Amino acid sequence: MKLVVATNNQGKVKEFKQLLEPLGFEPVSLRDEGIVIDVAEDGETFAENAHIKAQAVYEICKCPVLADDSGLEIEFLGGAPGIYSARYAGEDATDADRCSKVLSELEGVDISMRSARFACALYCIIDDDTEYSVLGTMNGFIGTEPMGENGFGYDPIFMIDEETSVAMISDEEKNKISHRAEAMRKLAEVLRANG
């Protein structure tokens, strides 16, 4: 079954393909479908933003849609960058810029106070009567410098243990432990139970 993934982030599309294809879904991106849309993500939570995106795309394509909103929450920063994760260092900032901003804000902060989590809200609209919402999280802490070449976003500074950032593990490993993987597992259970 074709499923439109409401994102232009090719890193996310790749992850969703790896996670959804085994369930019999054929994830396609907005670009694949020729959909050009700029949705105002003005919700106050990841779940609200995922719902807003899913609804906007569903109204265009009238086929199953999956939207996510995800980001990094750092305890010491009161949950920031949170829903502003993608724009935290400014509109045209790179992943490296965003990582640098977080590291500068945590400069001198003891490792014991750098706990963080990735959160991923998924909102899936199958048809006019069927909608699902799930949340996945991944706990860790913020390191003191970027490490690793894999992944994207904040992966190089998000540590899963003293020596390993998310950017140092394989896609396969990441897809077992990530916030997106947990959310996908929850969604898969819901879809299977209601299929």
Overview of this protein structure:
The protein is of the alpha/beta class and 195 residues long. It has a single domain, classed as Maf protein. 31% of the residues lie in helices and 26% in strands. The radius of gyration is 17 Å and the shape is globular. The N and C termini lie close together (12 Å). The mean pLDDT is 93.
Lateral strand order in the biggest sheet: 2-1-3-4-5-6-7
Low-confidence stretches: none
Largest sheet: 7 strands, mixed
Order of helices and strands: EHEHEHEEEEHH
Shape: globular
CATH architecture: Alpha-Beta Complex
- The span between the termini is 12 Å
What do the pLDDT scores average to? 93
Number of helices: 5
The value of Rg in angstroms is 17 Å
**Helix percent band:** 25-40%
- Please report which band the strand proportion falls in: under 5%, 5-15%, 15-25%, 25-35%, 35-45% or over 45%: 25-35%
Total number of distinct structural domains:
1
CATH class: Alpha Beta
Question: What is the subunit arrangement here?
Answer: single chain
Strand count: 7
Concise summary:
With 195 residues, this protein is α/β, with parallel strands linked by helices. It has helices at 10-20, 46-61, 95-105, 171-177, 179-194; strands at residues 2-5, 26-29, 65-74, 115-127, 130-142, 158-161, 164-165. It has a single domain (2-194), classed as Maf protein (Alpha-Beta Complex), CATH 3.90.950.10.
Give a topology summary.
Blueprint: E1 2-5, H1 10-20, E2 26-29, H2 46-61, E3 65-74, H3 95-105, E4 115-127, E5 130-142, E6 158-161, E7 164-165, H4 171-177, H5 179-194
Parallel strand pairs: 1-2, 1-3
Antiparallel strand pairs: 3-4, 4-5, 5-6, 6-7
